[in-house]
Amino acid sequence: MGPLNAPASRRIRVLLADDEAMIRAGVGAILAAGGDFEVVAEAADGREAVEQARAHRPDVALLDIRMPRLDGLAAAEEITATVPGTAVAMLTTFSEEAYVARALGGGATGFLLKSGDPHELMAGVRAVADGAAFLSPKVARHVIDGLGGGRLSREAAARQRVATLTPREREVLGLVGAGLSNPEIAGRLHLVEGTVKAYVSAVLDRLEVKNRVQAAIVAYEAGLLP
């Protein structure tokens, strides 16, 4: 029997940081079953995670939130700032809005639950490695519900922001919101990847958001997603 859900693609190099050795072993086993992942380094605290990220420059740093010396949120901010080629995803049992908001504000583009489905974990790491955004569905509900203000007022504000975009930019935003990576968007819209990258950058600038996850939230609230 072949690897679980392994696509025919390059191997994704992962840094796995959690203060519990059993969690690291379990997540490592899940990734190993995927067939296209390679855990290149492990860390038991946030400071070590930053050091390992700088030393190994993995595609994805998968960080627990609560770790000694330096928590995962602070580690995510430091890795994002100093190791630009490494995408950051948070791995946690805590889905409170405050954690999610700070993680996204610090540059994380993925938020996964330890108790989630193994397929979801692998899909999330793959998405983040490809430059897309990925939130566990349970986390996404917390984010939407915890943004503050009434739902109708948030929808109206989001529609007003989206109205400043060109039709093509709105189309790109909708696909970003659906979790597609730049290569996938390029294929869907029959564009070269460089053009898609320029569109995504323009959309982030116009919406005044920091990353694809925040853009996806605007797309959701503006009604661009099913």
UniProtKB/TrEMBL annotation:
It holds the Pfam family GerE. Signal peptide: none annotated. InterPro entries: CheY-like_superfamily, NreC/VraR/RcsB-like_REC, Sig_transdc_resp-reg_C-effctor, Sig_transdc_resp-reg_receiver, Tscrpt_reg_LuxR_C, WalR-like. Residues 13-129 form the Response regulatory domain. Gene3D superfamilies: 3.40.50.2300. CDD domains: LuxR_C_like, REC_NarL-like. Keywords: DNA-binding, Phosphoprotein, Transcription, Transcription regulation. The modification 4-aspartylphosphate is found at residue 64. It comes from the Bacteria. This is Response regulator transcription factor. It comes from Streptomyces kunmingensis.
